[in-house]
Give the backbone structure.
Amino acid sequence: MAFTLLKELKHLTEIKEVKTFKHGIHPNDYKHYTKDLPIERMPFVDEYVLPLSQHAGAPSKPIVKPGDYVYRGQLIAEPAAFVSAALHAPVTGWVKAIEPREHPGGKISEAIVIERDPHSPQTLLNEHPIDWENLRPKEILEIIRLGGFVGLGGAAFPTHVKYAVPEGKHAKYFFVNAAECEPFLTTDYRIMLERYDSIFLGIRIILKLLGSEKAFIGTETNKWDAIELLRSLKPDDIPVEIIPLETKYPQGAEKMLIEAVVHREVPSGRLPIDVEVVVNNVGTVAAIGDIFQYNQPLIERVVTVTGPGIRRPANLLVPIGTPLTAIIEYCGGMTDNVRQVLFGGPMMGIPQRTLDVPILKGTSGVLFLTDYEVVPRQEYPCVHCMKCVDACPMYLNPSLLGMLARVRRYEDMLEHHVMDCIECGSCSYVCPSNIPLVQRFRVAKTLLREQMARERAKEKKA
Amino acid sequence: MKRQKPRLLLTTSPFIKSREDTAFMMWQVNYALLPVVLASIYFFGISAILIMLVSIIGVVVPEWMYSKRKGTPVNTVRDGSALVTALLFALTLPPGIPLWMAFVGALVAVLLGKLIFGGLGYNPFNPALVGRAFLQAAFPVAMTTWSPYGNLSNFFEIRGANFAIPFLKAKVDAVTMATPLAQLKFDHQLTRLSDLLLGSTAGSLGETPAILILLAGVYLALRKVINWRIPVGIFLSVYLTALVLHWLHPERVPDPVFHLFAGGLMLGAVFMATDPVTSPITQRGVWIFSAGIGFLVVIIRVYGGLPEGVMYAILLMNALTPLINQVAQPPIYGMRRKEAREKKRNAS
């Protein structure tokens, strides 16, 4: 009690500059597992698996055949549509096959399998800095598009799509999202401490590309040393401000970040660009800095391997496509009581049914939970305690939606804005009755989306 | 290499959860009630213990049978919610009430107040108050006969007619004493504030030590088990309403502070109005709810036939809760600013 009061007091002294959104939850952050471990490069392994669909949008189109020799950083699949991403070979070696493989999303999907050439020095294909200062924005955008960049925070939305600002709209502010509100994950934190030069270069380039007035780096106060470091190293010639945010989940959700810093609300069903904002994960920004420094496309990323179920937690720099089994082996193996393996954090991560899956571009962490964390809980009737209502950052009424979902009145849920749910899981986290609220909303949203698509198709026919 | 093959559990996110569940909240309320219960035993001795025991039996047994019968793993006995109802019901009773009446009231509270609607979470009214309202209607004399408060020296003295035989007129000439509100209403006598605070007045079992209830409320609010806005809203509303009426007719309405500490207001505001099941679900709604309770309490006390109005005020606002929930839903994210709402209106 006294401890929380002290924390609260300390918080009050900082509160003047600390920003946040309304509502949200305060889970334990569990970052101590990997917070102080520097990023380490994992040695190359023999095989890499690159699913063609590891981003939002259309799967990439392969431009290599089995048997081809490819170099590290070489384009192996093109974006198949506007909302799609390029794919590059993460190692030098042979294309072993293009075949269906286990995908971390839970299904089996087409993937390019690359066998490493054990004799290759694994240098980058054509490593050189790009003279971006003399490039026009359009050319910069094309480099980013062919660099295969997607949001590295987890959603893996193709980055060039965000930068292709539609006619008549303007990105006044550029946000670097380093909130990292998911418990356990320390990827963004380590990147800020160790790769600040790439971050600032990335910001410089993106500011030029978007023509934005100002850039913000938003990060939670549990990463205070990163805030201080970035503030001391910040170059004076670019308009960038480091914003401390309250350590509160889901502070890293795009809409909440925008609300906290510039007090604007993205209208229902619209994008941040509608309020003159573009948001990118800090890892993405650093990777964009890297392509202009070394001509290195998105072929590797930092992954937090953490949780009580792994023997040696670590912040690893791994090539995209590294098999999970290799990472587990490198990190000393799992403990015997592992019950759940997640890609991403504990609030919005994706559970794995098998260990035969590769790391994707959007995999921010691998979390190993044991019997102790994974406790089945008895669902109680809703007691209307309003904890969920007070937690929902979108100001929905999860209690009411939960009751409607329980009796499958999905159309009534539509009236109560279920489609605006960002699926952050805050309601399920706080519910004292253990009602799987967000889980039911997801089902409702999927069914409603299907139904709406069917109706649209019918209208088209008629 | 032999590959480890753990049995992996597939569920959907989130995978971590707050450990504060319903049982935790209910037991917290029980712990917070403990000092009030002890104070009540101090003032009313063995009678308080007997009434509470009878209430617990009357509430817990039907709840236990219901859980068994329904076959749900939800056990409202183990999670403490039945005990909360039982204790709160007992604390609203006068110390001299015949035990059989207390038992009947407890049965009504749990059967008609709660289980008939489907048990925990589904009852529209506070079950403890439903039981008390029934007794008030059925046995008005017993419910308004107040024994004087005592202390540890007369611990074993049975107050009033605890052992009266059912349906026979109890022949007791026990000493009675008026509650501060009754004294005010019928004798125009004002009780001292210090007596109200320390509980040295006549009244229901739990109507007495205002300061203890207040402390319990502070504890529960800090633990976030109850919503602090409800008691605070009620106190503000009572104070303001009483202030206005005091200004209108100073001879009938005393200083507003008296209304805050007299009668069952403390117990009602801290433990009963805050029942999550029967109070609104949005913060705006909670303000409306508590303002309504405070207003009604003072109106009933001043203009009503009864000296006390907390029970009816809470029950009436319980009835309004579904309506309040409908009107007090705040606009969702993206709609909170005026321009956004107007745009939407123009579009549709």
In short: The CA atoms of residues 8 and 242 of chain A lie 23 Å apart. Chain A touches chain B through 70 residues (CB under 8 Å). The first strand of chain A starts at residue 39 and ends at 41. DSSP finds 14 helices and 17 strands in chain A.
